[in-house]
Write a structure and sequence with these properties.
Helices cover 73% and strands 1% of the residues. It contains 29 helices and two strands. It has a two-stranded antiparallel ribbon. Helix 3 (77-90) runs antiparallel to helix 4 (93-106), helix 7 (151-163) packs parallel to helix 9 and helix 10 packs antiparallel against helix 11. The radius of gyration is 43 Å and the shape is elongated.
Length: 575
Amino acid sequence: MAALLSAAVSPQAAAPADLSLGVKAPEKSDLQLTPGGLVNADVLAHYSAALQFESSGKLRQALEHYLAVFKADPTNAGLAEHTAGIAMQFQGRDAAVKILEEAVRANPRSPAPLLNLARFASTYPPEDLFEKDETALKAVTEAMEKFPAHAEVYEAAVMLHLIQNQRDKAIAVMEVAAQQESRDPQFWLSAGRTAERVWPLGQAEFSVEYRQRVAPFFENALKHVTKANAEQITLEVAQHYLLTNNAERARQLCEKLSAEYHSLEARKLLYRLYGAADQKDKALATLEEIVHQAPEDADQRRLLASEYDKLKQPEKAIPHLQAAIQYGGGEINDYLKLVSLLAETKQYDNMVRISQRSVKLFPDQPFAHYQLAIAHLSREEWESSAKQFAETEQLAGSTQTELLSYRFYYQYGITLEKLARYEDAARMLEKSITLTPREEAKTAANTLNFLGYMWLDQGLHLDKAGEFITKANELAPDQPAYIDSLGWFHYKKGNYPGALKELQRAEALLQPIAPEDAEILEHIGLTHQALGDKAKALDYLERANGLKTPEQKARKRIEDALKKLKGGKADTEKK
């Protein structure tokens, strides 16, 4: 309604009015309505009233004003359609059709009034089921004759025939459309989408035949592109082929767009196409191009990080996930994944820093606290780690109980053990043992051995410790570390011959002996000492000391035991 709703007043050439206070204004106003403006002003008043009545649900009153507006501007197809829709409710079908027919007569150069009439007549047939009404058919037929270069007339005709189960007539319409000589690619795109309704490409049994009927419309669009619209039209055609499972043609067009126009959208489609075709190298290279072209696109950064993660290249994934968080704000899953990648690459300082930020941003997310607990554990910050484990357990207890797995309680338990909170550690480790699945026998054996050895190391609950260690050896036999624990249990119980037997069995399984095995040699040395064989005790302790175990507590203990033994030997010789 551009003409209808244009300004209704126009300024006249006259001396400016004196609008200062206390001075009488001129008798004639500076602004006067023109004769045309008087008409427009009245129409605008009706239009404003119609909108207000309609917005308040008073459609009968709105209709009166819409009719007044339509009388002033019957060429407006949109206004005619809207007015007819309301008239249908209060004045009946005939009155509505009359409005639409008047719009057709008033605007003979546009297909829109005819198509509105056709849609209305087919949507609201006569109440008398036996009354033959060809209003819709006549309207679309006239539209096709008068406006053959307009794609929308073919769509309206096709829909009318399909609704009436006249598919053969719909096919005939599209055959007429295919014979047009339009050089407008948008005509062919629209016609192609209409053709898909006649020959639906989703019907697998006819997919080859129907594709051959539909494809020419889209190919015609490509034939008539110009420099100004080539990229956009080609991309739309490529998207059509992608959605209709013609991946090969879609790929060809996207490669052309990528090479000639560096089209970002085409490259995004190419990435999907290469991935679907299992061309992983090309998919990755294309995604790298996309990120280089649009570095601030958080979604593409996230995708690239995921690809590197699949390739087991966390060091390459990390910077892209960090960028995704920077540009896109970051969601909880972004932070959790980033922390996992940092853990994988042993970047423990960054792991703590990002985990702390994650906890601040998502304080109610148990997994964020869990990751922070692991981060502190990795840096041997036991107090901070234990605090986060406790927070995780409390939060997850009501929302994410699956997080409280056997792994969680094992990690919590070994942290508490480092803090000398042995009873608390035992509770957590026993929970871990209870939750460990049967198929994870090796894991259960490790936890049983850790708990049993912890008690032996503290000289507490020796019999219970022996039960745990015995069970560990049953679940995972011939493990030097577990056999060493069993031998050390016998040592603690004063059964030195039994201890030596098990410890030597553990030694025999060490092939070769590593620095981490120093404790086993230490135990053998101390057992020989308890049995009175100081020479063998000295030999084993010196061998243990020579391994230079990375465990500082064990190294100092071995050094102290060696000094004490040597000192005792020297004293004996003096005597």
